[in-house]
Design brief:
By secondary structure, this protein is an alpha+beta fold. It contains eight helices and ten strands. It has a single domain (5-216), classed as q2cbj1_9rhob like domain (Jelly Rolls), CATH 2.60.120. Helices cover 33% and strands 19% of the residues.
């Protein structure tokens, strides 16, 4: 039986700190998106690709394929996240994360904006919910994420020893998504497989938090104008539209003054 959004939100905030929503996309849809990410990563596009050791990040995905637009505004995800952050939340970041064979742990951490703050972190309001999309089956051996249940309630940076005692791998089928509280301690596990393990990460914040990546700045005006109302809201389109109008008005007044 499918849990309602309020129950899932309660589990994220007051329960173990994370939930798994299984198979929101088909394996075919996810497989095509995964291949697209790996192809782009192979080309290492300037300004969009960052590689550190056996892991890499690929940015600016939203206008690459329709499935990425669908991910950030998937109704099931949106209803849960809005139950926590409110209906006027924004998308603070959206990128692919690739763990190549042999990739080791990233290190237990909390998410932005908490890691920029001095602990103890404020318990309320919740400042971030993360979505981890599984771009293939996440297994015990290919680097599935590790989560330490209930640690969002501690409002502290992870303690390595305690994390090692509590952390459990979250596995699932391709097309599933993990939604987690930004304060819930988590990490990647080691990729013991012979294939890259790919995820797509979405970060949702209240509107008063400065976006980590500010995805709207990466989009063309045409893409933004054609985006759905929900995607425009997530990207802070009204703010960028207001800035654009101010620039146009300034250019107009400058041209009149020059005549």
């Amino acid at each position: 039986m499918m849990q309602d959004a309020a129950s899932l939100a309660e589990e994220i905030v007051q329960g173990k700190g994370y939930v798994l929503l299984p198979e929101l996309f088909t394996s075919r849809e996810i497989s095509e998106a995964r291949l697209h990410i790996l192809k782009q990563a192979t080309e290492q596009p300037a300004g969009r690709f960052l590689k550190t050791g056996e892991r890499s990040r690929l940015y600016r995905l939203l206008d690459e394929a329709a499935i990425f637009e669908q991910m950030v505004q998937h109704p099931r995800v949106i209803e849960v996240v809005e139950a926590i952050l409110g209906s006027d939340m924004t998308l603070g970041g959206f990128s692919a994360h690739i763990l190549y064979p042999g990739a080791t742990n990233m290190g237990a951490h909390v998410d932005y904006p908490y890691f920029t703050m001095t602990p103890p972190y404020p318990a309320t309001p919740v400042m971030e919910v993360q979505a981890i999309w599984m771009m293939e089956d996440f297994t015990e051996t290919n680097g599935a994420p590790l989560f330490a249940a209930d640690t969002q309630k501690l409002c502290q940076f992870p303690d390595k020893k305690k994390f090692a005692e509590l952390a459990k791998k979250v596995t699932g089928k391709a097309g599933s998504v993990v939604l987690s509280h930004g304060l819930c301690w988590h990490d990647t596990s080691i990729n013991h497989s012979d294939q890259p393990r790919v995820s797509v990460l979405g970060n949702y914040n209240p509107k008063f938090i400065r976006p980590l990546e500010n995805p709207a700045q990466q989009m063309s005006p045409t893409f933004l104008e054609q985006a759905s109302p929900k995607l425009k809201q997530l990207l802070g389109y009204e703010f960028h539209a207001a800035i654009f109008k101010d620039v146009q008005m300034l250019q107009y007044h400058n041209s009149v003054a020059a005549e």
